Amino acid sequence: MDKMNITEPARTLPVRAEVDVLVVGGGPSGIIAAQAAAEDGLKVMLLESRSFVGGNMTIGLPILGFLGQKGNQIIKGLPQKFIDRLAARDAASEHRYCPLHMGITLVEPEAVKTVGLEMLTQSGVDVLLYVFCAGVVMDGDTLRGIIIESKAGREVILAKVIVDCTGDADVAYRAGVPCEQGNEQGGMQPPTLMFCLGGVDTEKLRMSIAEEPRTYLTDFIPNEYFGQNNQFIVVGLRSLMQKAREDGFKLPVERTILITGLREGEIWVNMTRVSGVDGTDPVSLSHGEIEAREQIEQIQKYLIKYVPGFENARFTKMAPFLGIRETRRIVGEYTMTRDDILSCRRFDDAIAVASYPLDIHHPQGGDCTLEWCGDCYDIPFRSLVPQKVKNLLVAGRCISTTHEAMSAIRVMAPCMAMGEAAGRAAKMAVHDGIAPSDIDVQKLRKELLEHDAYLRPAEEAVV
Ligand SMILES: Cc1cc2nc3c(=O)[nH]c(=O)nc-3n(C[C@H](O)[C@H](O)[C@H](O)COP(=O)(O)OP(=O)(O)OC[C@H]3O[C@@H](n4cnc5c(N)ncnc54)[C@H](O)[C@@H]3O)c2cc1C
């Protein structure tokens, strides 16, 4: 049968709100963007389609990227304040150095949701949950507002500046910003459904790895590291997986990835994988959710049978949704490349500093490629500014990068730092009555530094 189309009749929509700054998406970038924009009392609204804020910070992942490859802290400002709040509730670890991931900061997913909402409401941000950004209101090439869809129907929210923190560039895409998706063949990093096991003897796990390096070989992280750290990420154990495969196990990845939780005996498992899922297509997403759930049983059995410390492990909980690593990226005023990352490039419009390596989970097959630059690289403001559409900024994993550069900047600490920059830029644009693309970036950098964000000193050479 031919694909049918139906024309929706034009209709008049009620305007629910008119705000100064509208942040769409309440993940790591959106939470921080909204707080930054609201600092001087502007009218700021944050929209989120789920029943909670936090985005991928609620799926059992550690925050990566607070520390650089030289061990120094390179993300500070509002992101650090968020961690401080979590830590005050015993819901965040210190930033721990890791030779593979640079900085690991463990967080408690439920506390992320609570603290996120608490900080937003205390900052005066109007938080609207259960609403999906379904369309845009354009005036020529200027974005005037967005159309939301919810139980209350279709409504409009108008704003002077909009920050797209949806991870999928939903606003930008609908507004007509050119977007790219995946690598040259359209291949995207595959998604993972995280799950958590309790009753794991994490001491036995780490000491076995530390003391028996030949049996328990890890990728890139020296085995002795595990003898010195009781909060850690294990990546590797490939020979155990090989043995399990020979014994008939079906495992979707090449590497065992295990992350200690903050609570005793807790391990988050990052090992499901469904190649070929397109996170912008509901049919594909549904397939991903079903398939990833089916993979959990085999992975759990593998861990219990082959990995030390899992003998008495039991399933406790899983992430509320399939974790999407990659979908759309905007084409902005500057597109960050693999070379920018690997050459530790500096930009005179730098608004954040990152250091996480290129980390591409292969679109097909179960492996991954990692490449480090040895230090830090800048994220330029121009990569947050989309082409073709005015009044819009983008923060988080869907800024303007290539497929490869995205694999590095996507981790949560830099996403939070981009959120802070975008929120402050939006605020400046509203105050000055100009488009965010026209703000004085040196003034933005000054404001970031005054609020304790980290940027590299100007006297260090700028490319
Ligand atoms: C399996 C997996 C493992 C990863 N491992 C790590 C790790 O260990 N450490 C790390 O730091 N990073 C990790 N990452 C990367 C990191 O989690 C993401 O890149 C990061 O969370 C992106 O932040 P964001 O704010 O751009 O988007 P997100 O975290 O995706 O947040 C986007 C928010 O916007 C909302 N939203 C989306 N569309 C709409 C819409 N149309 N209307 C309203 N709301 C909308 C979503 O519900 C969500 O809350 C991993 C990612 C995955 C998937």
Largest sheet: 7 strands, mixed
Distance between the termini: 56 Å
| Helix percentage range | 25-40%
Q: Write down the overall mean pLDDT.
A: 96
The total tally of domains equals 2
Rg, alpha carbons: 22 Å
CATH class of the largest domain: Alpha Beta
Got a strand count?
21
Identify the CATH homologous superfamily of the largest domain: FAD/NAD(P)-binding domain
**Multimeric organization:** single chain
Low-confidence stretches: none
- CATH fold label of the largest domain: FAD/NAD(P)-binding domain
Secondary-structure arrangement, i.e. CATH architecture of the largest domain: 3-Layer(bba) Sandwich
**Strand residues, percent:** 15-25%
What does the overall shape look like? globular
Small-molecule components bound: flavin-adenine dinucleotide
> What count of helical segments does DSSP give?
12
